[in-house]
Design goal:
This protein is an alpha/beta fold. It is built from 7 helices and 14 strands. The strands form 3 sheets. A 10-stranded mixed beta sheet has the order 1-2-4-3-7-8-9-14-13-12, sandwiched between helices. Strands 5-6 form a two-stranded antiparallel ribbon.
Length: 319
């Protein structure tokens, strides 16, 4: 009898040890419900690592976009996190592009190598458009989607899912993706920490007043004929691209700049820069011109814009 009781006691101890190990691994023991109000981790989703690191995400790759209510996005993550929350760029592709293809571009890999996550949303297919997916950026056109609401959803989801630093989000975009960045920044200067649009600005009628101050670096090709610096008419004059220099005047007003002219110039290297510094504290305004046309951003641009971000936002952890 004593032997039987001993064997029963040992079995109970072993069962308890098995249950403890299962809970420690993040799964509820068979037949034991998770605590009320706490869902057991889904199959295939890693439990949080020791030290509070974010769980491994189950989406975001080239063939598996992350879903939010108003759309989806891809993400390229930096390899070395070193226990820190990564800063991030949000990149809005040009007409006919996609977040999927942009995730494989050299600029995205270069930013990831600098320690940034790159969030790459997908535009919507526009009815009757010759160029494929795009963005609802012109206030005068009927919107397919509230792009401001979508951007908020995407940033909030990515910050939580990938353990990103919400205080170091930079919005960038190419062509009409760059135009979207101008309009988003104009509506809400605090949507992101900084803005780096490329080859796209306001369309006519151009806004005469924007929220501010902002930190904004605009890059444009000197020979751009698709989105010229002066803009151009489209659809037989039904719509007009805006003038980049006129748009910069609106940003100078938003930043409280005292001078119309730029007062710092840098002509070393591929990108020639004009900077306005007679402006409100906490603002930044810069124009970078280069000799090319309407080509998408590349790895050299990524290095330049990462340098600018780190200059205007300061070192990580300083804010």
């Amino acid at each position: 009898m004593a032997s039987l009781l001993l064997r029963m006691a040992l079995a109970i101890v072993a069962l308890a040890a098995f249950a403890h190990a299962a809970v420690a691994a993040g799964a509820a023991p068979t037949g034991v419900a998770a605590p009320a109000g706490v869902a057991a981790p889904a199959a295939g989703v890693a439990a949080p690592a020791a030290g509070g690191a974010a769980p491994a995400a189950a989406c975001g790759g080239v063939d598996d976009a992350c879903q939010v209510p108003l759309g989806d996005y891809h993400v390229v993550l930096p390899e070395a996190r070193e226990g820190r929350k990564a800063p991030a760029f949000v990149y809005f592709h040009g007409a006919g592009g996609s977040g999927r293809t942009s995730a494989q571009a050299p600029f995205a890999k270069a930013l990831a190598a600098r320690g940034y996550a790159v969030i790459l949303p997908n535009g919507l297919q526009r009815p009757g458009a010759r160029f494929g997916p795009g963005w609802s950026f012109r206030p005068e056109s009927p919107p397919q989607r509230d792009e401001m609401a979508f951007t908020h959803e995407m940033i909030e989801d990515a910050v939580a899912r990938f353990d990103l630093d919400p205080s170091r989000i930079v919005l960038t975009g190419y062509s009409i993706g760059g135009s979207l960045v101008w309009y988003l920044a104009c509506r809400d200067a605090h949507l992101a920490a900084a803005y780096a649009p490329y080859a796209g600005g306001f369309w006519r009628p151009q806004p005469t007043r924007c929220a501010g101050p902002v930190k904004l670096l605009h890059t444009h090709g000197w020979r751009d004929q698709t989105v010229p610096l002066e803009g151009r008419p489209l659809r037989a004059g039904a719509i007009y691209q805006g003038d980049i220099f006129e748009g910069l005047q609106t940003w100078r007003a938003a930043n409280g700049c005292e001078l119309l002219r730029a007062d710092v110039f840098d002509t070393d290297g591929r990108f020639w820069k004009r900077r306005w510094t007679s402006c409100q504290a906490g603002s930044a305004l810069e124009l970078a011109l280069w000799a090319g046309g309407h080509e998408p951003p590349d790895a050299e641009w990524a290095e330049m814009v990462a340098d600018w971000v780190e200059e205007v936002l300061g070192p990580e952890g300083a804010q």
